[in-house]
Amino acid sequence: MWVRKKMEEIKKEKEGFKPSLSAPTVVFICTLIAIIVPKVTGISRSIYNSKPVGLIDLLPMIPKILAIALGLFGLTYLVQFIRKKNFLVEKTTTVICDECNMKKTDNGINTCECGGSFVNIDKMKWVEEDSKKENK
Asked: Positive or negative CA dihedral for 46, 49, 53, 57?
């Protein structure tokens, strides 16, 4: 049966949080593409750069480009660590009634037909009937 997690359990989960590398990796790759592609193709022509840069001419710029991309990678990772939430992860929309254990997708109605209230599944845990009796 489903029971609410204790505050200590929720805090322990947050302390054990490990940021995902997926969002920082996406930021890193997109940064590289956003900097290199316009330079090579000449899409972003300005007063100072009227023609595309060849790949050989791009070599001296690589340390600066990597520094920018790695900086954004680190910043994204740091923000995830500080917020204790991963980017690019779907939010859980499943809620469970704390009385009758009925599951449903969250639709904004927080009161169950049985009189209980719906709680996000992240704040609940599954325990067997016997262990619930032992915990009380």
From this structure: negative
pLDDT at position 5 is: 84
**Tokens 């209980």 appear where?**
116
Residue 90 confidence (pLDDT): 65
pLDDT at 96 (0 to 100): 87
Q: What is the DSSP string of 76-117?
A: HHHHHHHHT--TT-PPP-EEEETTT--EEE--S--B-TTS-B
Q: How far is CA 124 from each of CA 4, 9, 12, 64, rounded to the nearest angstrom?
A: 4, 10, 14, 47
Residue 65 is predicted with a pLDDT of 87
How far is 68 from 22, CA to CA, in rounded Å? 18
- Intervals of the chain under pLDDT 50: none
Domain borders along the chain are 2-11+90-135, 21-83
Residue matched to tokens 């322990």: 12
